[in-house]
Automatic annotation (TrEMBL):
InterPro entries: SLC26A/SulP_dom (IPR011547), SLC26A/SulP_fam (IPR001902), STAS_dom (IPR002645), STAS_dom_sf (IPR036513). It is found in: Membrane. It is a multi-pass membrane protein. GO terms for biological process: transmembrane transport. GO terms for cellular component: membrane. Keywords: Membrane, Transmembrane, Transmembrane helix, Transport. Residues 868-882 have a biased composition (Basic and acidic residues). PROSITE patterns: STAS. Gene3D superfamilies: STAS domain. It holds the Pfam family Sulfate_transp. This is STAS domain-containing protein. Belongs to the SLC26A/SulP transporter (TC 2.A.53) family. The chain crosses the membrane at residues 89-106, 118-136, 143-162, 168-190, 202-228, 248-266, 278-295, 315-334, 346-363, 383-403, 410-431, 542-565, 577-594, 614-635, 642-663. It comes from Lupinus angustifolius.
Amino acid sequence: MRMEITYASPSSPNLTALAAMPSSATTKRTVRIIPVQHPTVTNSSSSSSSSSFVFSVWLSKLRKKTWMEWIELFFPCFRWIRVYNWREYFQVDFMAGITVGVMLVPQSMSYAKLAGLQPIYGLYSCFVPIFVYAIFGSSRQLAVGPVALVSLLVSNVLSGIADPSSELYTELAILLALMVGILESIMGLLRLGWLIRFISHSVISGFTTASAIVIGLSQVKYFLGYSIDKSSKIIPLVESIIAGADKFSWPPFVMGSITLAILLVMKHLGKSRKHLRFLRASGPLTAVGNIPQGLPKFSVPRAFEYAESLIPTAFLITGVAILESVGIAKALAAKNGYELDSNQELFGLGVSNILGSFFSAYPTTGSFSRSAVNHESGAKSGVSAIVSGILMTCALMFLTPLFESIPQCTLAAIVISAVIGLVGVSLAFVIHESANPHIAILGRLPGTTVYRNVKQYPEAYTYNGIVIVRIDAPIYFANTSYIKDRLREYEVTADTSTRHGPDVERIYFVILEMAHDNYVGNIPQGLPKFSVPRAFEYAESLIPTAFLITGVAILESVGIAKALAAKNGYELDSNQELFGLGVSNILGSFFSAYPTTGSFSRSAVNHESGAKSGVSAIVSGILMTCALMFLTPLFESIPQCTLAAIVISAVIGLVGVSLAFVIHESANPHIAILGRLPGTTVYRNVKQYPEAYTYNGIVIVRIDAPIYFANTSYIKDRLREYEVTADTSTRHGPDVERIYFVILEMAPVTYIDSSAVQALKDLYQEYKLRDIQIAISNLNPDVLLTLSKSGLMELIGKEWYFVRVHDAVQVCLQHVRSFERGSNNSSQTSLALSDDKPSSYGQLLKQTGENLPISDLESGKGRSPLSMDRDSHLEPLLSKEH
């Protein structure tokens, strides 16, 4: 199959003769044909040979690997260990690890509460997974551990299976870590990290925005001092909050609000002033019930009888974890100048979750906030993660008694302050802008063949009877309606505001240029004991949840790991990351850890603190060990509103408010009216080029975006507006009362869907009823093919498709000239725009009684005649298929 593009010459006598014959009798113009080559479709045999070639190349790469490369393949830590500069990197790694570790202690307890677990399991989830990920993960700045989003998923799913206060609930959370780790490890080993590319930012932002709002609302109970119903939906949460308003208590509200305010202020200062960046991690250590002291014991996850029912959740968590982790990991890797392997990340996250599940950990992944802090702290390697792990070990062994008096409202404040940044407010504006693109009426700049937006270039003039409209955005489903409406408005405006043109009543052409504080309570002191996860009878029911948490953990962990790897100049393997996270969760589950993953915030803190290697994670782990062994009694008096504040502060950033703006931008694309730059044949936005002038009766519109279902209505609306505007404000042209041509300049339109095609058909029919002709110029080949297959090309007429805007304008003006000559020769006064209606141009000439030369139509009344700038070929674009 081939497509032929034919170009007609303006000198062809057939063009002039159009006025003297009906459309059915119109003869073809002299054309030249350019065949457009299409790619050859490969057959099955060539495909199979290509597959065998790829397989042979893959085998040859495996054979060439040295023993050290094989070690680095499964243990990425050797990549930075071999070249680690202890003098230069250890100090910054150590400080980054300490910073992240200090940040991790209150966050982990807060997120455990969010997951419906005792705070000690948050600390357990920071113990084994951190060390395991430092070995198997490929990101050097990713901070792995409990995260708000995964914790919320765990709570939403498990609360429907077991009572959060029961031992079964804890067993299911640990089993979920094992399932998520296995899924992540399998994905890493099977090299499935490429699947992450198909998850768009809009999907992630929308998901995290909703999650952040739900997380924040779920923590409000610790601020208000009364219980609210658990739900993963916003409306029931709000209804429950309102229903219990009579139980409101001032003390937790005041304490939680103050804590939240302090956290947000410190976070702002830490971001805006580098010398105060340590404040991003220092606030939460203020003062939860009994917290067991000591490291978690090894234990095999139980409750496998619920595994089947947890599979969907495991897939979901896996997806979320991958998105969150790999996203930040890639960003940090890019910033630090190294390449991140998504598959290695998946593997590393998987191993960390698998091993973590054997040490009482629930699903974990990379944390946005902690990874950012890790990066900003200067982390250069996994040493920072090791330091954080050592710090967590110390906290488990020695510091848990200190955590027992932390108010829960304080932990709630930590949660809220963490999630505030997750709200993607800007996305809403982008979405609105996309669905309401900019559409401009174009006018011709005096002395040129350039068309610009008449609003930007007041001197640009338009032609009576012709509206030139430019849509400055791709046209797609979200903005087609808007574009159609704007075109209708522009048509009406042009009818009443055409400037500097002869008196004409209407438009014939539209040219488109296309109370009391609730404390945490008792926290056991000491490291968790080894115990095999139980409750395997629930494993089947936990399978969906495990998949869900695995997804979430991978998204969070691998994302931040890649970002940190890029920032620190090393390569990150996503599959190794999955394996590392998986092993950390598996081993963690044997030490009472619930699912963990890389933390955005802690990884960021680790990086910002200067972490250069996994030593920082080891230091953090040692700190957590010390906290478990000695400090848990100090955590028992922490108000739950404090932990809730920590959770809310962490998830605020997950709210993808910016996604709404992206969607808006997509549904409201930029559309510009083009005018001709004086002395040229170039047409530009009349708003950007005030000197560009338009033609009376012609509106040139450029759509600067793909056209799809979301923006068709907006584009139509803008075209209507520009048409109306052109009628009332045509500049530098003879007085004409209305628009006759609308030229759509569609060079920026790279895609058009069926909704947009239908919108253009509807617009054409509307214009046809008012004797307005649409001309389309500069089509993308793919869009041209779509219009041809949809029948729109035949509907509008192949003679109204042009390669350039200038060609479309010249043809429109030639039509006016042909009718002028037809009137002088007393010939037929029908223009072949309709088979059954007399020409509006003939009526126009009868009403005005004027014989206007084409130069006057081009240059405007009272101006020096301009040359036609005639090319050897005007280029109306025709399409045939053979």
